[in-house]
Design the sequence.
């Protein structure tokens, strides 16, 4: 009986080992890099577009905490990338669009989505890249949470 159990354990290891090796190679491979169709804009290109604000819409695809921590452009439409397709009705089609994220990764995906939907997209911008190239970034401090004060202390 002991011999049978040992033999069964050896057979199980031999049969299962290639499966474990395949799973390990699947997770070790890096994810495919996104190949954007839209251009990534530099500071000079962005500032040329900002010179005509009546023709431009900046769509910032970052989370609110990123906006307050890192900063951004003074005027923008805030829609996170996951919600972009659901909010197309709020985006004007008669203006040039620049999508914004930290280093343009999300912005490139958003720009490609909008271009596929028929919007006039100039490209994508990385706000941190823009600032590193000498561009001015607006920073708004997050509000400080205040303790509630009792307006009626005798109650």
Sequence:
């Amino acid at each position: 009986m002991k011999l049978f159990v040992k033999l069964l354990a050896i057979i199980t290891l031999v049969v299962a080992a290639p499966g474990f090796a395949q799973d390990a190679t699947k997770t070790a491979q890096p994810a495919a890099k996104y190949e954007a169709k839209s251009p990534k804009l530099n500071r000079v290109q962005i500032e040329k577009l900002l010179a005509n604000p009546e023709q431009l819409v900046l769509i910032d695809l970052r989370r609110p905490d990123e906006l307050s921590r890192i900063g951004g452009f003074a005027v923008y439409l805030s829609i996170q990338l996951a919600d972009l397709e659901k909010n197309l009705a709020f985006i004007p089609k008669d203006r040039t669009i620049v999508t914004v994220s930290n280093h343009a990764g999300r912005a490139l995906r958003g720009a490609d989505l909008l271009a596929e939907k028929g919007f006039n997209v100039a490209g994508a911008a990385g706000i941190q890249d823009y600032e590193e190239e000498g561009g001015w970034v607006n920073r708004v401090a997050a509000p400080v949470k205040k303790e509630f004060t009792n307006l009626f202390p005798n109650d």
User: Anything to note?
Assistant: Helices lie at 2-28, 43-50, 64-70, 105-116, 127-132. The chain is about 40% helix and 10% strand. Confidence is low (pLDDT under 50) at residues 4-9, 12-17.
